[in-house]
Amino acid sequence: MSAEAKIAALGLALPTAGAALANYVPAVRAGGLLIVSGQLPLVGGQLDDSCKGKVGHDLFNEAGQAAARLAALNVLAQARAALGSLDRIKRVVRLGGFINAAPGFHALPAVMNGASDLMVEVFGEKGRHARTTVGVSELPLDAAVEIEAMFEVE
Fold first, then answer.
1. pLDDT for 68-79, tens place per residue?
2. Dihedral angle sign, alpha carbons of residues 8, 60, 74, 95
3. Can you tell me the distance from the alpha carbon of 68 to that of 32, in angstroms, rounded to the nearest whole number?
4. Scanning 37, 39, 54, 77, which has its CA 20 to 30 A from the CA of 136?
5. What pLDDT, on a 0 to 100 scale, did the predictor assign at position 1?
6. How far apart are CA 2 and CA 135, in angstroms?
7. 37-153 belongs to which CATH class?
8. CA-to-CA distance for 84 and 17, rounded, in angstroms?
């Protein structure tokens, strides 16, 4: 099943790809790679209220995973905008996750699984990827997570 068909079969709708919030571009194509800038868990161009604050203080694992999944949907929206179709993605190479973590919160990998699991649901084995997960003290708009990605593309 194609990635586009899988998105539909999962009952997911990709958000509209948003414009950059500062002096950068949402995605860059370099040879056979597409690098998508960090994306927040936005809905309709606004940070979803359930995705604000520090994971481990204002929200916890399941809400953090949902925020990571939503941010990853925004990553896919940027990829589709850059490529015209998610079916041009040959492989998810890498995800980077930044978790707005409360001091002492150590379940960062579990939160990041919200994004990783989505990539495997959409792309199957081609969705398995390398990743980095980092706890940070602040993120733009007080977002709970920010997700970036690198894809191998045709």
1. 999 999 999 999
2. negative
3. 26
4. 77
5. 86
6. 34
7. alpha beta
8. 12
Rounded distance, CA 64 to CA 30, Å?
A: 31
Token readout for 150 is 């690198």
CA atoms in the 13 A half-sphere facing the CB of 15:
21
Predicted confidence at residue 48, as pLDDT, reads 87
DSSP-assigned letters across all residues of 104-118: T---HHHHHHHHHHH
146 Ramachandran zone, left/alpha/beta (phi>0; psi -120 to 50): beta
- Spatial strand order in the sheet of 145-153: 27-30, 33-39, 145-153, 89-100, 130-136
User: How far apart are alpha carbons 50 and 68 in whole angstroms?
Assistant: 12
